Structure prediction request, 379 residues.
Amino acid sequence: MIGMSMDQGGRFGGRRVRLRSRWRGSHVAIAIAVVLAGCGARQKPLALPPMAPPAIPVAPAPRAEAPNAAAMPAPFAITRGFDASLWFTEFHANRIGRISTAGEVATFEITSGGLPERLAAGPDEAIWFTDPARNRIGRLDPGGAQAFIPLRNGDSGPATIISGPGGDLWFTEHASNRIGRVTPLGTVTEFALPKAGGPAGIAAGADGNLYIAENSGNRIDRMSPAGRIEEYELPHPDTRPNDIVAGADGNLWFTELGPQRVGRMSPDGDLTEFKLPAAGLPMSLAVGPDGNIWVTVAAAHAVCKIDPDGAASAFFLPDNVYPSFISSGPDNNLWFTEPDGRIGRLTLAGRLTQFSASPANDAADATGARKHELLIAPH
Prediction:
């Protein structure tokens, strides 16, 4: 059992704030129909013409072999897949990995280069990902075949991507202040936000709308699938909302990087903020299989849990564990990435298991083991 501490005084000031929304009509949506195709490799963002011509599709990607793989992978974002596995990107690597709930790993090279950042399982049983280095959206099917959709605006900064309303994929464009929608057939529609705000996280709400965390704009936006936008200004300066998820309680939960808190906002704009029992930036959050919100705090080597009423607790992990992005898994456990080349699995009771993020034919992790389990007495 990992050491747990309880903090029942987690509510920020014990008070709620009612946020007032301002309705903003989005700019005219720009629809771009693009054939799902590959494009040439570049490691820097590509300035595209108004309409990028289709390129030559790439062949199915081979799984990464040891000579082509980094000696120590650095897992970044992670998400639950369409199958009984989890998928992850690697920091500063053109590779996407898949890990089963038993810890078996396979990796896929992104053959035309780029930098996969965030990823999501699509309705077509493929993994979709953002690639800010190549200014595009990518698609990876279970067999390894890849296709890419270039974005119309150069250096858009595609960031978070999710499966959302209408059976489409929705993503934020952090640099160009747009929200993008891509259908499984490759048609892209972009919605310009009313003003600059650096959209970071995006979540599909239970009410059928999308909720966007504007990191530099200090706002949470509600956007209908048709592009109608309502803005909710956060009351405290430099809140910097970043990651956001729709909770099992029907509310929206998001990280606040400035005050190092977690915010909860109802669809009507009622805001409550919670202090975490672990000090440091809340990096990522996910809805757990128990309906609670789980938050990683890498600097504190901790994974925090917040119930719908705001009671918070923390699992403090060993000092060499830096939990980064987190996702609920198909096995009813929490899974998170570690930048030192491992994937962590945490049960609801606090049992931690670590797996190497390298395939079996790659180098083992720093401990020489592919699986490492810890049972630590409570503090």
